[in-house]
Give the backbone structure.
Amino acid sequence: MSANRKTAFFTLMDIEARKAYSNLALNHQIARRKPDSPALVRQIVYGILENKLYIDYLIEHYLDSPVELMRNCEKIVLRMGIYQLKYMDSIPTYAAVNETVALAKRFCSRKKDLVNAVLRNFMRTGHTIMLPDREEDEVRYLSLKYSYAPWIVQLWLDNYESSFVEELLGAGNQIPDLVIRPNLLKTNREDLKKRLISRKFQVTDGNLAPDALHVRGSRLIGGRLFNSGMFSVMDEGSMHVVNMLDPQPGEFIMDVCAAPGGKTVYIAEKMNNIGQVLAQDIYKRKLNLVTQAADRLGITIIKARTWDATRLNSSLEGSADRVLVDAPCSGLGVLRRKPEIKYRNLNKELRLLPVKQLAILNASSQSVKSGGILVYSTCTINPAENHRVVLAFLKANKEFEKEESIQLLPNINNTDGFYICRMRKK
């Protein structure tokens, strides 16, 4: 049994059984088990997460009961085998079968014969399995083809044309580029680009954010440039949030849901490290990430404190030049990075999140001074959490007016799915 597949197995177990986020689980297991090909581990893990419903659909053609009734270790082993046979042409068939059966012997020995039988039957007849008829049930068809929970498909079909939804589903399954931005206190985009190219990285300019660079190459994170604070990793959608906030040197700016701090430090850099940024979050341990990022980048104007953003802080009323509300949300815009979200039942959260988002917006808006700016953003693609929250806020707070809003989409903008709205206090 290869260390690569063993690492992938334990990562998928963390995600399935412990509901861990894929990026954190991968980093943990790779660091712990030290596979000789981390790239292969990531390919298997993300490939299965991106195609899980369809893979289960294929497996169930050879079982008498749904995959979900199996023990976690059994279904993960089967998914790994089917994924390699279906999608990974670079792996010989015999290797995919033998390695998967070896995993079964180690972690679910009572089902090793079943695993072997399913894989060999799939090799013979898997090519004949067809998707359900689209005309009869479009939601089920798209749900299986792109492996999204049916409620997400239905949500987007309620708001977009069918062809557009299919593009959106497909874009959510693509591996995103590694996007970085320079630390504006130490360098600029052109200088950083030259440094990266001299180190044999492939670098192209971003399309949306003027500071963005798309980079290809290995061992960029944790290298000398990163450790010396020359750049940060940040999607162009996140950068656009800060650009719409438009922070200026000398201002007092509040980031009320700051952790893990990517936007917070970018705000401080845009201010040339002059002024004050108040970074708030309800979880103290998460605020540590903000201060760590600031220390690495050489930023000194950020003050971090724990605070429940749904509560009004009367001592700060009317004091901030600009307030950023990057609200907690369903995360449907970051499925490229966290594909496990596609399978979570968020029915309760979808009912409660807009209430919480509006409460945060109402409380935070009290800190904006006359003529000041309030920016509301989410990393989701759901009108109930986005423009409907803003409409409800503006209806109840006549002293604010909307200046600009945008819904970024991965299939259109090649960014994470962000909603951003800029408002001004009259």
Observations:
- The chain has 18 helices and eleven strands.
